[in-house]
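Appendix B. Raw example, untouched.
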Amino acid sequence: MPDWINVFLRTLLAIVVLFGVTKLMGKRQISELTLFEYITGITLGSIVAYICLETNTPWYLGVISVVTWAGVSIGTEFLQLKSKKARNFIDHRGTVLIQNGKILEDNLKKMRLTSDDLLTELRHNNIFRVADVEFAIMEPNGEVNVFPTKENQPITPKDLGITVTRETVPQTVIMDGKILDHTLHNMGLNRRWLHTELEKAGVAVENVFLGQVDDMGELYLDLFDDAIQIPQPKTRQLLLATLEKALADITGYALDTDNPQAKKIYQNCQRELEQIIEKVKPRLQ
């Protein structure tokens, strides 16, 4: 058999074996790999290269090596799931680098980090002064997580006493000009509703690159032609404006009437409408 055919067939075999092994081992982002997983990845790459190019050596020896490495890696992950001690031994624990604004030099040396490395990690977390850090911890995967001091943390609606509602993830109903019927069905919608919304926007479904429906039932469209601008839906804002106008009208009626019974009815309606607006306003803004 010619060498080029042999290499071609061995490469195809290596791809199949590596794909199967990767599926068994699961997937993680490169930045989330532990030290052992990093070593395993490098070793598997070297073995696969051996399978592809070492034509003078039986291919099955490389496959055995890949399967062995994969088995050890899967076994190690299973052991880590079952044992906290095993996790601490294999991956180590998180190491505190800064505590209460004070750098822990001994821990920094254990992690083989210089002061420049630490400052770089802080800048990645948008921190430029060590004094602004309450805690900084190096995780087992090498990532440094930073917790700023209270006065340097961003203000949240909770800090301001503002009530906000939970929002669900928008659901994609159109992708690459194709309608995703299963998503529409899961949201309790159908094609008739979708075509009605598209007619309102004046676009055809085949011209839509991406269409999403939020938890309020509003359809957001992105077209293939970026030069065409579609007005964003204002249903929620219009509803809030309508409720506030109704409140203003009822308040005016209560002030204008001289009939005590009618004034009392208007005032009761005013209070009820104010309560309704207070409840729904976070959802409609």
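End of appendix B.
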